[in-house]
Amino acid sequence: MKRSEKAVKIVEMLEELYPETPVPLDHENNFQLLIAVLMSAQTTDLKVNEVTPELFQRGPNAAKMATVPVETILNDIRQVGLAPTKAKNILRLSQMLVEFHAGEVPNTFEELEALPGVGHKTAGVVMAQAFGVPAFPIDTHIHRLAARWGLSNGTTVERTEKDLKAIFEKSLWNKLHLQIIFFGREYCPARRHELSQCPICSWAATKKRMAEERKR
Fold first, then answer.
1. What tens digit of pLDDT does each residue of 126-162 get?
2. Alpha carbon distance 141, 184 (integer Å)
3. Distance CA 151, CA 204 (A)
4. Which of 131, 164, 195 represents a domain boundary (last residue)?
5. Which of 109, 131, 153 is the last residue before a domain boundary?
6. What is the CATH number of the domain that holds 147?
7. Average pLDDT for residues 97-111, to the nearest whole number?
8. Total structural domains in the chain?
9. 76: exposed, middle or buried (C-beta count within 10 Å: 0-12, 13-18, 19+)?
10. Which residue among 6, 26, 47, 139 is the active-site one?
11. CATH of the domain at 81
12. What is the DSSP track for 116-158?
């Protein structure tokens, strides 16, 4: 099956499974979304949602967060991975938003990626979910599934992003990004996954990929 044919079928199946795609990270404004996405690296969304209520009560916006001592931020987010580094980035990021952006989250990739702790994937999530700009942020689920489904060679996240953007219509990127994440969590785990029993891998994965997965 050609990649373009796979793409059409995948979109249809994901739309049926996940017609609604709520952002899995709890937030009340763009600043809180940015902080939550930053914290989600090497940490589950569930854990991020557990620690952000107290943190956002102290710093609901950039101006307030910029005044919170780094030790207090660290104490609030201690349960997430790489907490010491993330605490420092959250404080400095908030100060930079106040200093250079009047306390508001900027709406360009260049400005977002200039902030501490904000990489291309984090910037992509914010651009997509906060500003509605078409993006295709590649997380571990999407990177893994794109390779399994034969949509990308999976060597780098940059290659995966380029491949998926070429396959899927631009108008679908933002919703599809979340749909694939939801599917990965529910049906397509990284380990002990029987591709032949998966709703999508069973027909989308190549024979070579099937053989590789069985050897693991």
1. 999 999 999 999 988 899 999 999 999 878 999 999 9
2. 6
3. 9
4. 131
5. 131
6. 1.10.1670.10
7. 98
8. 2
9. buried
10. 139
11. 1.10.340.30
12. TT--HHHHHHHHHHHH--------HHHHHHHHHTTSS--S-HH
Domain membership of residue 147 as a residue range? 3-20+139-215
Same domain? 119 vs 195: no
What whole-number distance in Å separates Cα of residue 25 and Cα of residue 37?
7
Catalytic-residue membership of 163: no
Catalytic residue, candidates 76, 86, 121, 163 = 121
Q: Examine the residue annotation and report whether 6 is marked as an active-site residue of this protein.
A: no
Clarify whether residues 125 and 46 are in a common domain: yes
Q: Which two tokens stand for residue 134?
A: 């078409």
Check: pTM over 0.85? Answer yes or no.
yes
- Give pLDDT tens digits for 167-206: 999 999 999 999 999 999 999 998 888 898 999 999 999 7
